[in-house]
Write a structure and sequence with these properties.
GO terms for molecular function: methyltransferase activity. This protein is an alpha/beta fold and 220 residues long. It is built from 9 helices and 7 strands.
Length: 220
Amino acid sequence: MIDIDYLNFLENILTDNRKEKFLKVLENRTKHFTIAVEDIFQMHNTSAVMRSCEIFGIQELNVIEQRYGKSIDKEIAMGAQKWVDINTFDSISNCVDTLKNKGYQIIATTPHENDCLMEDFDISKPSALFFGTERDGLSEEILQRADGFLKIPMVGFTESLNISVSAAIIIQNLTNRLRNSNIDWHLSENEILEKRLAWAKNSIKDIKRIEERYFSENVK
């Protein structure tokens, strides 16, 4: 449960413009779609995918770090890591199992004999969209466990796009369609409160000192 008194205390420190911005952004956030990236060798690509998630309203990014233990490039992310939830997994199976248990269908973004073009993709089902490595694409394990396959239509000689470009195109297309649909894609009331609290904490300098003062004065 969210401590509403504590949330109000922190938000009173913020400017009205900041609080209004939080509410406006949260109106467009969704967990109906979530993004997963697998063992991305070039971490600036993961950072760029995170930035696309933030810009187009995807709240969660799932990162599988089975082979490469690299960190987010903060310059590329440009602060997006403060506003997007990053879930990390040490194995493909752990990531896929977790997302399936949350009710997501697993969608592999790769050319496949049973693939679907973006404009034909059924946006009504909660979906986890998987993007693979720059070198090898998605692993066989993910392809075997995928519930569906999605691709970007291309008419040139080049057969593939950089992962960060592919993710941006797909995320923008699907989230735009989602917002123009009758699907209930918004965050729940409790999820919005959780994000307001987390974002308020991310916005306040010396938050640890302020927290200590608040709880020392209010917790008996």
